[in-house]
Amino acid sequence: RAKAAGRGVFHFYDDALDDEIQRSLLLKRELPRAIKAGDFSLVFQPKIKLSNGAISGVEALARWPHATLQAISPGEFIPLAESTGQIVPLSEWIFEEALQTLASWRNTPLDGVSMAVNLSALLLKRNDLVDEVRWLLDRHSLDPALLELEITETAALENLDIAICQLNKLRELGVTIAIDDFGTGYSSLALATSLPADCLKIDLSFVAGMLNNGANAAAVNSTITLAHSLGIRTVAEGVETEEQLTYLQRQGCDEAQGYFFAKPLPKDEILDWHGTHAGRLLPAA
Ligand code: C2E
Ligand code: MG
Ligand code: MG
Ligand code: MG
Hints:
- This protein has twelve helices and eight strands.
- It is an alpha/beta fold.
- Strands 1-2-3-4-5-6-7-8 form an eight-stranded mixed barrel, surrounded by four helices.
- The longest helix is centred in the N-terminal third of the chain and has 36 residues, at 2-37.
- It is globular and about 50 Å long.
- One magnesium ion (MG) binds at residues 59, 118, 150, 180.
């Protein structure tokens, strides 16, 4: 009986697993072609200063629009690109596009807004990272202080000594460092106190839960306290409601990012968005 019942079930899982493997093989094969063809794009999500509602920066997020395979999220293609080494050429493209976009905002209302780029674990380990970043900033005549690199706790932990050394060199250049998805790792406290960083990004899972889950609220509050006692900033990610925003303001969070303010937007829509929303982003007190 068990066998009969089990059979269909296993068959079902087999098919699902098979589809997943097929898809990942297909995507792995597609990646190099897509990178060469310039199929990727970047979208930019504003970060808002909670003291005055000004836009402090944007985060660049990669997208892979695909004609036949719909909705390939970065949560899917970034790990794939890391596993095949394709993350190196892909990141080259991402950095070039992000810095070119940042340079294009010179003498516009977005002049002085910073650009945050997510740095993959694999790049953090590379010897040429610091030189590449310096060269890119020079070539676009950009103030290094306008570039923020986001590093996840997991990426830093993979090779802590190298991470600390690289991040120190990047900060000597004038680039700022944010620890992304803060609080989701196993040794967040140790990392926050040993990594050279300018900002902790509170993971969106805590923000999503903080209004009805005491543990999530505790994580948010203590991250803000920790950051401030280290003399660094906090950014809350995934802010979707006014209630969440009000809570974060009361806790003294420095900046926020999320659908409440804006979804990640293509570069030609960011200027319009800023024109329409600047100075009107915080609800009247
Ligand atoms: P992340 O760096 O923590 O980025 C935040 C994610 O939250 C983004 O997902 C963003 O679109 C999403 N988000 C923003 N506001 C809200 C909100 O209010 N509600 C909800 N539910 N989500 C919100 P996305 O774009 O799918 O990126 C996922 C992850 O993929 C990123 O997490 C980052 O780790 C990675 N990633 C994205 N672009 C790049 C890239 O260019 N390079 C590298 N190395 N990783 C990237
Ligand atoms: Mg990020
Ligand atoms: Mg994050
Ligand atoms: Mg994340």
